[in-house]
């Protein structure tokens, strides 16, 4: 079967990969000149990578790890010491380590919490552990049911005091979804905790050894191309064309450099776009279908990625850090954590600014100034004086992953739709790994599986001609 896919983020790419594995022919179209979507990156004038987001991989990403294995590029993940590391704004410059011992789960995570005396008292630790008990016993079903509560409401119900929230959960909430605990659904951090408590290496963190477009997306493109598929950048889906019965007749595509529009016809069609981009393209003929109406309840959350190239080496660790500060979420010194960005003499901090609602409209210089002020608070004795910054980069994403407020789980769509030849993909579609790279890869795989099931039910198109050139009206 020929399958037209719009969107070359990780979901669209994974979908294409698993379609060629199943013997189908994917034709993927990406609007941008770079693949990767939220993991995209571009080189600046000096040849340094400017990324859309700082990306960390977890041991609890089975589908991503399997994909890397299948592409023979597992060695591109640089695994770090098994620990979660937090800044302590109340003790500037001192990091708090939750070292996870190499023993079976959940004992390893429980021991790491019990052994850490920087952030929680014994009473808080015990209350925290008791609060997590239903999630441990009842698993994902319980975790899903907690979607009706915000994280703060759930903590109150469990009798877990505010200190645990400010110490652990603000960091988790901001890192996982770019919003604060009063806004985030309890399902989000509980899902992560549940994975970490069940898998021995679930909370182990890795960084890619270079930029995602080259080191992660390109191998998928090569794999797909070698097996009869195709991947085209600077090709934007302009309109979903319908048959009289509401099924898809074709994708009306447009180039990004003023080329004439053309129609792509295929046996099946996939939109692997962000939910916001898809809503703009939803055909009029589908507006009455509740399946598509539910998407109005989902929208992307703003986030900002900041990179600061210093002229000197900062005292640093080769790991991801959870800042626990108001402005920042997670950050890392990429000159340490990532092989391609390695520099023994100069640090490059990459930081995620979240929640970003109040900052997304501000100037880059305001954002850099605020970030530097926050860093000075976190490391008063460590930042060189005067601070020597070579250059900075700010990438704003006004609508990134879906905003995971309470009640959103009910509106996340399946990859199959009521339209027999049309499918969705993307980390916002229903899968248990939330708005993550793992979620995107799994959604792509589920979409490919749904299409494979659909293919056994319909005869293939008679013509092998997919791209029927047709000037637009
Ligand atoms: C700052 C930041 C940090 C993050 N950190 C992490 C992390 O540490 N760990 C983690 O697991 N996840 C992280 N994520 C989340 C992760 O990046 C996403 O969940 C995942 O990449 C989403 O992939 P996707 O394919 O579903 O969507 P997207 O990446 O949004 O892909 C959609 C694609 O569709 C394309 N498109 C849009 N409109 C059209 C059109 N009309 N025609 C053709 N193409 C179109 C877009 O250009 C894009 O390439 C982070 C995200 C951000 C923004």
Automatic annotation (TrEMBL):
Principal location class: membrane
Molecular function per GO: oxidoreductase activity
Cofactor requirement: FAD; NAD(+); NADP(+)
Keyword Nucleotide-binding attached: no
EC number of this enzyme: 1.3.5.5
Listed Pfam families: Amino_oxidase
Subcellular location: Cell membrane; Membrane
UniProt keyword annotations, A-Z: Carotenoid biosynthesis, Cell membrane, Membrane, Oxidoreductase
Enzyme's top EC category: oxidoreductase
Amine oxidase domain ranges (all copies): 10-451
Reactions listed under catalytic activity: 2 a plastoquinone + 15-cis-phytoene = 9,9',15-tri-cis-zeta-carotene + 2 a plastoquinol
Keyword Transport included in the entry's annotation: no
Pathway involvement of the protein, from the record: Carotenoid biosynthesis; lycopene biosynthesis
Membrane topology summary: Peripheral membrane protein
Similarity section: Belongs to the carotenoid/retinoid oxidoreductase family.
Protein name (record): Phytoene dehydrogenase
